Amino acid sequence: MSETTINSNAKSDFPTPKNCFAETVTMVEHYTDRLFKFRITRPASFRFRSGEFVMIGLPNAEKPVFRAYSIASPAWDDEIEFYSIKVEDGPLTQHLQKIKVGDTILMRQKSTGTLVNDALLPGKRLYMFSTGTGIAPFASLIRDPETYEKFDEVILTHTCRDVAELKYGQELVANIKDDPLLGEIAGDRLRLYSTVTREDFEFKGRITDLLANGKIFTDLGLPPIDPETDRGMICGSMDMINDTKVALEAFNLIEGANNNPQTFVVERAFVG
Ligand code: A2P
Predict the structure, then answer these.
(1) How far is the CA of 21 from the centre of ligand 1 (A)?
(2) Which superfamily does CATH assign the domain made up of 20-108 to?
(3) Where in the sequence of the chain do the CATH 2.40.30.10 domains occur?
(4) Which tens digits make up the pLDDT trace of 118-166?
């Protein structure tokens, strides 16, 4: 591959927009024709809380298209990781899916979000409910030791259409367990519950149905959700969020926010 191919947009003809960092892609991994992960360099001055999102774009226009992306790496990491969908005519992802190592990504300087430990009341067990790329903020939180200081047990649920789409989450958790430091902290306290909806698999079904019929609790060998001890975070499509909210409210959990910590919080996963 020639140098020009590798650095296809490394030298932008456009000035970096105000309040933006221009960072370099350090790795790209494609999982399926719909999903990929990439990592970029981290600006020394960029601070964020694990679970937050930030706006990113490409330096391919005077006024680039920006979209909110959850940061998938933890706050201590020296790179920034993102996990993205590819949409053929998506204003950002039609170009983003073609990035290569050495390319430039624009990232706004301020991050924010509600899927943070501070937005929840203290509890014993934290459930993280995700579908598709909604796993990204949880990829950050489950790699942050602070999560295990606040909760005895962390259950990450990840539901996708088919088995190939589960790979990012499965590798993520396997790598945590293999890591000498994180593995010791997370150990058996971190559990991944993967389900698929459009293919045969050990665990099947939408998370909303598995909560309603109690199968998730049978599968995990846990009691039903109890507002005294259990907390929830939800990230997926708008419909998934709304339906999972209803499911958690049936267990008497209450939606909270940064300025009003309660027993569960939600955030929409990026699409497009
Ligand atoms: P399904 O295959 O039954 O639509 P997507 O890739 O479209 O974002 O979907 C990711 C996963 O989320 C799929 O397994 C999908 O199930 C599931 N899903 C979609 N809508 C909802 C919803 N309203 N509640 C719960 N799960 C949902």
Answers:
(1) 34
(2) Translation factors (2.40.30.10)
(3) 20-108
(4) 899 999 999 999 999 999 999 999 999 999 999 999 999 999 999 999 9
Asked if residues 105 and 99 have their Cβ atoms less than 8 Å apart, the reply is yes
For domain 117-266, which CATH number applies: 3.40.1390.10, 3.40.50.300, 3.40.50.80, 3.30.830.10? Answer: 3.40.50.80
Atom of ligand 1 nearest to the CA of 160: 14
Whether pTM > 0.85 for this model: the answer is: yes
- The residues, any chain, with a CB within 8 Å of residue 112's CB and separated by 6 or more, are 52, 53, 54
Identify which of 269, 4, 272 has the alpha carbon closest to the alpha carbon of residue 115: 269
Residue 222 has pLDDT above 60, yes or no: yes
The protein residue with its alpha carbon nearest to ligand 1, atom 20, reads 240
Residue with the nearest Cα to atom 27 of ligand 1?
240
Cβ(131) to ligand 1 under 6 A? yes
Q: Where are the CATH 3.40.50.80 domain residues in the chain?
A: 117-266
The CB of 199 under 6 Å from ligand 1? The reply is: no
User: 184 CB contacts (<8 Å, ≥6 apart)?
Assistant: none
